[in-house]
From TrEMBL:
Organism: Paenibacillus silagei
UniProt similarity note: Belongs to the peptidase S1C family.
InterPro entries for this protein: Chloro_Bact_Ser_Proteases, Peptidase_S1_PA, Peptidase_S1_PA_chymotrypsin, Peptidase_S1C
BP GO annotations: proteolysis
Endpoints of the signal sequence: 1-27
rRNA processing as UniProt keyword: no
Annotated protein name in UniProt: S1-C subfamily serine protease
Length: 229
């Protein structure tokens, strides 16, 4: 009798588990975004970046991406190389100045920037919009978006795939992507479909048509404070 009761109990437990199981939770499956949604997420966390001469004219321009609510940001080293004065222009027209280079690496083509405090720039909720860093490595064929400022008042987004997550280019590991990159987008973000920063735009590969170079997050993290790791 006890054996029969135990068997019935097990069957009922199994049926209950089947009825009430609803599959993986939203926490197990990261939300994915299309190009329109990705632009909405990233547009407030990027800025037009210009290196200024003593007369106020720009000697070089590019794109910066904000990495923390306090104003830690990043760009490509070649954009700010030997810069004496740097300022940024946000999507809403807010001029961010002065911007300081706190750490840089020419070989990695990364520069870490410090923006003025959010309070000084009158940012909403006393914090900058920012992009979180992706934790895991990209995969071959994964969809990605490139964002940047080819023109001062014109941020653009392009869509592509990861051609390879790791290519040896001049002794450094680089992500290769088919997401199109125009002059002025250097330093901007490569975004994955979960709204996370997957790399920093570095340039184009001359030996391959429409293949572009991205600094990986490992090289970026190596210059960031320990709190990002």
């Amino acid at each position: 009798m006890k054996t029969k009761l135990l068997a019935v109990s097990l069957v009922l437990s199994l049926i209950s588990a089947i009825l009430f199981y609803s599959g993986p939770t939203s926490a197990d499956t990261p939300e994915t975004y299309n190009a329109e949604q990705s632009y909405g997420i990233a547009s407030k966390a990027i800025f037009y970046l210009r290196v200024l001469k003593s007369d106020g004219t720009a000697s070089s321009t590019g794109t910066g991406v904000i990495l923390s609510p306090a104003g830690t940001a990043a760009t490509a080293y070649h954009v700010v190389k030997n810069a004496q004065r740097i300022e940024g222009v946000m999507a809403d027209g807010t001029v961010i100045s002065p911007i300081k280079v706190t750490k840089s690496d020419e070989l990695k083509d990364v520069a870490i920037l410090e923006l003025p405090t959010p309070a000084a720039m009158k940012q909403k909720d006393n914090a900058y919009a920012f992009l979180p860093l992706r934790g895991d490595k990209l995969r071959h064929g994964e969809a990605v978006y490139a964002l940047g400022y080819p023109l001062k008042n014109t941020a653009i987004i392009t869509e592509g795939i990861v051609n390879t997550p790791a290519a040896d280019i001049n002794g450094r590991s680089r992500i290769l992507t088919s997401a199109q990159v125009a002059s002025g987008m250097s330093g901007g973000p490569l975004l994955d479909t979960h709204g996370e920063l997957a790399g920093i735009i570095s340039g184009s590969l001359r030996t391959m048509t429409n293949i572009h170079l991205i600094v990986n997050t490992e090289d970026l993290r190596s210059l960031l404070p320990a709190s990002f790791n």
